[in-house]
TrEMBL record:
PANTHER family registered for this protein in UniProt: ACETYLTRANSFERASE, UDP-N-ACETYLBACILLOSAMINE N-ACETYLTRANSFERASE
Identification of the protein by name: Acetyltransferase
Domain of life of the native organism: Bacteria
Hydrolase among keywords: no
Site features described as Increases basicity of active site His, chain residue numbers: 138
Keyword S-adenosyl-L-methionine: no
Residue span(s) of domain PglD N-terminal: 6-79
Organism in which the protein naturally occurs: Falsibacillus albus
Keywords on record: Repeat, Transferase
InterPro entries, alphabetized: AcTrfase_PglD-like (IPR020019), Hexapep (IPR001451), Hexapep_transf_CS (IPR018357), PglD_N (IPR041561), Trans_hexapeptide_repeat (IPR050179), Trimer_LpxA-like_sf (IPR011004)
Catalytic residues, chain numbering: 137 (proton acceptor)
Pfam families given in the database record: Hexapep, PglD_N
Amino acid sequence: MWNIYALIGAGGHGKVILDMLIRNKEDVLGFVDDFSVQPSLKGFPLLGTLKDIPELMSRNPALKFIISVGDNFTRKEISIQLEPLSVKYGTAVHPTAHIGSGAAIGEGTVVMPYAVINTDAVVGSHCIVNTHCVIEHDCRIDSFVHAAPQTVLTGNIGVQEGVLIGAGASIIPGVTIGKWSIIGAGSTVIKDIPPYSNALGSPAKISTRKGGFDIDGV
């Protein structure tokens, strides 16, 4: 059965994913967005809001979705909201990206131009592996993670749910980054980072600990 895609999120990240799907010669129906006031994006129509997804699915049995929102927390919120609908998710991998043997990519994940996911690495669902990002062998990346452009994750790294790794950051082998932490752009991580932390610098030091909202209880 052939696939057709709809993108949830009609912003800048959505445009990038649209471009990848077009390059891969995939069929794209359009965008779903609760907040967009534009009738179309890059020539593709706004199909409605999240409330319109059941009707879109009934009219298009092969329809797959990608949550094309850059914010990790928002992607998780949307995925939870859509769980009762048993939505089918697709993936988008740019043709210049390299996926090694034995590597695995979860549903809804996008892999941008010139990214590398090397052998036996596992990337979870609804992740963003951004431009020129390198995820080396045997890394384990949980869901809703964003590895920004030119990040380098050397071998055997564990990255827990919801982590944001800023542009140009590097992580040495064997390190674990705790869930919903933020690694600042250009940082070098040489030891484990606890959950809900902000870490910045070279070597990275914890500057603050997150608090005030229940990420896991969304």
